[in-house]
Specification:
151 residues; 2 domains; two-stranded antiparallel sheet; 7% strand; disordered C terminus
Length: 151
C-alpha cells in the first residue's frame, strides 16, 4: 500500500494512499459536506464560521483555477497539518489564511485554467464577457488569489 507522511516539527502523520472519492473533481458534494462540517463545528465554536466559509471559498477558487483533483491534495495536506499542530502544540490554525508554502509545494509549476478569449483566470471561455454569447459580465465572485491578501 502506497502511503505518504506529513511531518510537522517532531510529529509525523501517515496518510493512506489514494482514496477513490478523492480522485474526482471538486463537486457540489464536497461543498455540501464541508458546509455540514462547518455547521457541526460552529454549533460549538460559532466564532469560526467566517473562517471556515473563507476556506471553502478559497478551495472553490483553487478548484476552478486548476481543475482536476489537485485541490484534494491541498485540502488533505492542510487539514492534516492543522490536526498535527492542534494535537502536538494545542494551536488552532486559522483556516481562512491560505498556507502559502503548502500552496507553492502543491500548485507550483502547474498551469491555471484561463479564458481562451481574454486569458483571465476569473472565468472560463464560455463565460467571457467579451464574447457575444456570454451576455452580461459573469466574472468570478471570488477575488483572484493573492499571497498578500489577508482574510
Amino acid at each position: 500500500m502506497d502511503q505518504r507522511t506529513v511531518t510537522c516539527g517532531d510529529v509525523s502523520v501517515t496518510l493512506k494512499s489514494t482514496y477513490p472519492r478523492l480522485l474526482k473533481n471538486l463537486t457540489m458534494a464536497f461543498v455540501m459536506a464541508f458546509s455540514a462540517f462547518t455547521d457541526v463545528l460552529c454549533s460549538t465554536f460559532p466564532h469560526r464560521r467566517e473562517e471556515l466559509n473563507h476556506y471553502l471559498a478559497y478551495t472553490i477558487e483553487l478548484a476552478v483555477r486548476y481543475g482536476g483533483t489537485i485541490l484534494y491534495d491541498y485540502h488533505k495536506s492542510f487539514s492534516a497539518k492543522a490536526a498535527a499542530v492542534l494535537g502536538t502544540d494545542n494551536i488552532v490554525i486559522n483556516w481562512a489564511r491560505p498556507d502559502i508554502d503548502l500552496f507553492h509545494r502543491i500548485f507550483g509549476g502547474r498551469r491555471e485554467y484561463a479564458c481562451g478569449v481574454c486569458s483571465s483566470t476569473s472565468h472560463s471561455t464560455h463565460l467571457c464577457p467579451k464574447t457575444a454569447a456570454a451576455g452580461p459580465s459573469s466574472s468570478s465572485r471570488f477575488p483572484p488569489f493573492s499571497p498578500n491578501f489577508h482574510y
